[in-house]
Amino acid sequence: xxxxxNIILIFVLLIFASGCxxxxxxSKESPFIGGTTGLLISYDKDxxxxxxxxxxxxxxxxxxxxxxxxxxxxSKEKVEVSLSGIDPKEFGLSDSDFVKHPDDDLQGxxxxxxxxxxxxxxxxxxxxxxxxxxxxxxxxPYTIRAEVCYNYATNVNSMLCIKEGQVDKEGDICKIxxxxxxxxxxxxxxxxxxxxxxxxxxxxxxxxxIEPRGNGGIYKKDSNCExxxxxxxxxxxxxxxxxxxxxxxxxDGGATSxxxxxxxxxxxxxxxxxxxxxxxxxxxxxxxxxxxxxxGISTEVLVKHST
Length: 307
Hints:
Blueprint: H1 2-20, E1 39-43, E2 51-53, E3 60-68, E4 79-84, E5 99-100, E6 110-111, E7 117-118, E8 122-130, E9 140-162, E10 178-179, E11 182-184, E12 189-200, E13 203-212, E14 217-219, E15 234-240, E16 246-249, E17 257-261, E18 267-274, E19 281-304
Parallel strand pairs: 2-19
Antiparallel strand pairs: 1-3, 3-8, 4-5, 4-9, 6-7, 9-11, 9-19, 10-12, 12-13, 13-18, 14-19, 15-17, 15-19, 16-18
């Protein structure tokens, strides 16, 4: 029994010793909280109620709750909430009563200097005093839909490898020819892959893929989500390496910034960076994706016939 215990102890010590000799590479921590949600949209409890009555004696409110779950600041003027699914006049209101902006700006969620998560703003948009004035012949269900259009952006970060001669060698501080870790701030449009490749002695390429990650519609920024071919699936992309000599293909509007259309739900952008250097180092690249975003929620309200 004693010899059996000694064998086990020797085996454990060998494993520990071999582990101590290994050099581990620390994983890179994202500067963002991340996630694929911009605004989190819901109805406040019992607003609207599940059941109301006809005949003009039953006022009720529809209250839409908005929480900025992502990491981009939105001014209140850039958020529009509208109701659909029911005729405003049938419920005692006008068309203009069914379109509103929140009273508050929406600060994004973020990490503080200690890495703690600070929650984004929660606010409410209230549509008051809906009332079915007419008399129905029987209980009638109505679907009320709240649609929200808001301006949003995703910030993206990765690291480029810059080398003398743009050639990878064993033991170098970084590699050019590889797929890179990529980090996205919280938002429904994301960069899902990032890859760097050498192109010549003083030049390299990098490409990245943009994809939607939410359930809503993507529109050209500041278009108020107007559903036209010119606005749909448009994202404004800006690329910044902090170095001269950067050009990107596929951006409508400029060498380092412009609009792209997400054909088939994605788009790959390729950039070329000139980089004459006498030393090896890593350099952050920052990408910003700007867009309008539209999504909605629905609920059913049963209007009962008053007897």
